Amino acid sequence: MPQSLTEKILSKAAGKDVSPGDVVEVKTDIVAFHDLTGYHVIEVMEKANMEKVFDKGKIVVAFDHLAPPPDIRSAEIQGIIRNFVKKMNLPNFHDINFGILHELLLERYALPGQVIVAADSHTTTSGATGAFAQGMGASDIAAAVVTGKTWLVVPQSFKVTLRGKPAKWITGKDVALELLGKFKADYFNGMSIEVYVENPITFPMDYRATTSNMGIEMNADALMFIPDQETANYIKSMRGYEPQMIYPDKAANYVDEYTIELDKMEPLVAAPYSVDNVKTVSEVEGIPVDQVYIGSCTNGRLSDFEIASKILKGKRVKARTIAIPASYEMFKKSMELGYIETLVNAGAIVTYGTCGPCLGGHFGVAGPGETIVSTSSRNFRGRMGSTDAKVYLSGPSVAAMSALEGKITYPRD
Amino acid sequence: MILEGPVVKFGDKIDTDIIIPARHLKYTDPQYLAQHAMEPLDPEFYKKASKGVIIVAGKVFGMGSSREQAAIALKAAGVKAIVAESFARIFYRNCINNGLPVIVLPKAREEIEEGSNVRINVETGEIDVDSKRLVGKGITGMALEILRAGGIMEYLNKIK
After folding, report:
1. Measured between CB atoms, does A48 come within 8 Å of chain B?
2. Which tens digit of pLDDT belongs to each residue from A164-193?
3. How far is A388 from chain B (nearest CA, A)?
4. ipTM for the complex shown
5. CA distance linking residue A339 with residue B15, whole number of Å
6. A49 CB within 8 Å of a chain B CB
7. Which residue segment(s) compose the domain that B41 sits in?
């Protein structure tokens, strides 16, 4: 039977041919957790008396949600995990000065054809490399840490084709929002989305990571980009080696298909309080904005700060602005290219590698009645802080323009 | 497994930031989490739920974050089972792993009224409400074994 990329990866991991609907046990290539879920994973392992790891080299740990610790309990949680890492002698440990887990998986670990599970819903991000990557709860991840296996229901595969060159200001966020607006948050439940890019170089890894990241907002089991030249180039440039490629069969069976014409798109936003409440920028233009957040595992990459710097160069922001490159690598490159200087000169507060604002944790929690424009992935009620705060999700261009004008603004030249 | 209780209804797309806000995730104590279940929608939910209730809700219940505290909080607050038109995958697994039965029933909100008393057969998915019988998707196989044991840790300890 011809197989989709999903079916091919899961067949390999299950050691037998699988079909949609099958409940299968699969081997995991990478099992990961961060600070806020990690202590819970460890707690489950302790309670079940199963304190061992299946393969030290395949466990990845990163501190990001509570980085740097905003309170004593957060510091205590990180201490618990540091002790575990030491006890188990885990080599792939990233303390608070490395970056957000999903960005680190993308930069250093994820490969086409892998099965990646992590105790965080945005694990779908690694799908950008052509891995089958999904989030799970602490108990499921504890079991995977111990056994190197997990169970799952083989999803149906849905194919999305990206055609043409993205119109000005269009990035991976707009593609994610287009899918959410068109299909809504429940349509892809139980499906794996496979994205085929007709012209690979026009849709770089940064954009792909954003779209894959928001696969979880579509409730997809995974959102993968079919590996191509851009996948190989990215891995080569970040890690110095060529990845082994894997492709779906030509006659693969997709439950349905959808094509997005990138050159005909216009920037989109998701209005409160739902990720699928998608509108064009013109529909919400002029709404006053208190705070703008550019960052997160969704949009904290080089191209995001490149776009923001282009818009903010030599100007001053009118809304409070927080910019957070997702990792040390992204921060350092942004610094070398002058983006950090531009953002700081424009009045933004800049740090790196924390999830803080996105989940209403720290480093810019939304107050009652405030309106936020954020490049992160969720605008649920109370997500970024106060239950009364309103969050508009956008890509970097709309966020930077809105910061500049102090109100939601269409990115014009 | 038969469960019975009064219905508390919620809408579509109830996300895990609603079920348990992120500021409470630094702890896993069920009693602490129970007091904050559904806080953004109804800060008094745990009082309402304490006598034992069945949640009936719409699509992709539990969408969003992987936080396992969402399942722990609802169970500890007194939720005996959740009947929804569909569930988000991670949340569904978290419920099973924490011994909280979850039943998929298309048109759940249309068929079941707030406050009515329902009786659920977890294995068969049969739901008796107001003298009618609805049939949802029951829980079988290993998931049922985990539920019967009371959760994944209890299950793992039992089979060891």
Report:
1. yes
2. 999 999 999 999 999 999 999 999 999 999
3. 9
4. 0.97
5. 35
6. yes
7. 2-159
